[in-house]
């Protein structure tokens, strides 16, 4: 190979009329080399190896490696049991064939390319119509919870195939209720329903996988999609690439939302991170596309199926008996009900986010669903009638302790002030009476009144009521002044009135 300066000199000498023999003699190279550069057969700076280097080890082990991979494919070996390069190396070593790790990996890599079906690894670029298709998938990650430490989290993605707009739901798990709740929130977020949704063969949706594309759907899932009117397409088992759009979005969104690992206090914080990511996505331009996701989304909106008038009821109904502690048990979690329901059977309906308990006469109470094992979710209002009667247990009552831990400190100050001014028993009962005001007025109005009452030297339940009524009077709009359009009345003198009394027509009238 000639240096750049030699190639340049070679061409300049040729332009001056020198022969190839003379140029070769001047540069001390062969005439064939000069001809190659002059004809353009060789490029300046390009190294050409005349004969390939010998690879005796690769040539020795390559046929055996190819044979192993062909036998593996013929046996329809499951993906998780496929031979690795390290395992192939140990098998070759047992047969007396030794190769370095780099040589072995290079041979295995080339052999896999040789024996594979190339059509299985090639993809056709796809195009979708606006509002037609969306793809659904769950992914897992980890977050740092302030109370629980490092915990696993789940996110449901629903991605529009045409625009690439994606909805992310911070799900509590991957159960049927979470899937339905996430899909309903996605439809409400998009403002409509896509005509076809693509899924894996996830258990909440598929009861049994049949031959080909046929599936036996779970009854609840069939009811759900009939309610919203969309078609469904399930991927072949182990073929997540059939919904490659959302699969790629899983990897991308996991890094965007969960890297670095965020610190959260609740699932609501994780949902806030998802919401912020969805907002940022609207201005992103996907590779090979001309417009941003937000601009392309405008074409999809008119094509979506309209939402039904009501939400699908995704709750799981069951019957439960209220314990003497005035709560019911759902798995390892306990939820309170009014003390009047103790010993009765109630109907419980739970979905991904809410637990609704239906008691006597159709009365309903609801709690945010908890996924913490052995959690006790209590509403202090359910226990107030009992606390008024059993006031000695006020300081040790679990519902009241939970309430005090969640609210500002003025409630503890109110209890201490009422006991100081009215005595231990009357003060405790007055404190419960103030809490009961929350059934008539908003809890914010009661708290504001408590703060105002605590500024007085002596506090009572009546004083709290006074401030509630005062605030309501201030906020109540005053009636507008009346406008009278009749005749005007003017006050006359006493003398004129006496004349009127003596007038006969007035007296007779």
Please mark out the parts with pLDDT under 50 across 5 or more consecutive residues, or reply none. Answer: none
**Beta-strand content estimate:** 15-25%
How many angstroms separate the termini? 139 Å
The CATH architecture assignment of the largest domain turns out to be 2-Layer Sandwich
Q: Mean of the pLDDT scores? A: 90
Which homologous superfamily in CATH is the superfamily of the largest domain? Ribonuclease H-like superfamily/Ribonuclease H
Structural class: alpha/beta
Per-chain topology:
Blueprint: H1 4-15, H2 20-27, H3 31-39, H4 56-74, H5 85-94, H6 101-115, E1 133-145, E2 149-160, E3 166-171, H7 176-190, E4 196-199, E5 206-209, E6 215-217, H8 219-228, E7 231-234, H9 244-258, E8 263-264, H10 267-281, H11 293-300, E9 316-321, E10 327-330, E11 333-336, E12 345-350, E13 354-358, E14 364-368, E15 376-377, H12 384-389, H13 398-406, H14 410-422, H15 424-436, H16 443-453, H17 461-475, H18 494-502, H19 504-508
Parallel strand pairs: 1-4, 1-8, 4-7, 11-15
Antiparallel strand pairs: 1-2, 2-3, 5-6, 9-12, 10-11, 12-13, 13-14
